[in-house]
Write a structure and sequence with these properties.
CATH topology: Beta Polymerase, domain 2
Number of strands: 3
CATH architecture: 2-Layer Sandwich
Largest sheet: 3 strands, mixed
Helix content: 25-40%
Number of helices: 3
Structural class: alpha+beta
Length: 93
């Protein structure tokens, strides 16, 4: 995952847990090794029972600040049914 090695994935895990989520996984172009300079980091998380949309937004902002490029945070429950299987089978760190 060229371009995101400079930080520890443990830092992302900490941010996700701080906001009630768990199990962050990378999917999309970074997971497939197809990221370009203008690619964002697609991050799939498991939402805890107390998570709100504000928690998801806070995770996105904090991870973007950590890695200095755009991030899209998606909860497993929000995945489109037609994309769900492909995303869940994507390689991830």
């Amino acid at each position: 995952m060229e371009g995101i090695e400079r930080f520890s994935f443990k830092e992302i895990l900490g941010i996700v847990r701080e906001h009630g989520g768990s199990n962050p996984r990378v999917f999309g172009s970074y997971a497939l090794g197809e990221a370009r300079e203008d690619s964002d980091l697609d991050l799939l998380i498991d939402a805890g029972s107390t998570m709100s949309v504000l928690d998801v937004a806070a995770i996105q902002v904090k991870v973007e600040q950590l890695i200095s490029f755009p991030v899209q945070v998606v909860t497993e429950g929000a995945l489109h049914p037609l994309l769900r299987e492909d995303i869940l089978q994507s390689p991830s760190p």
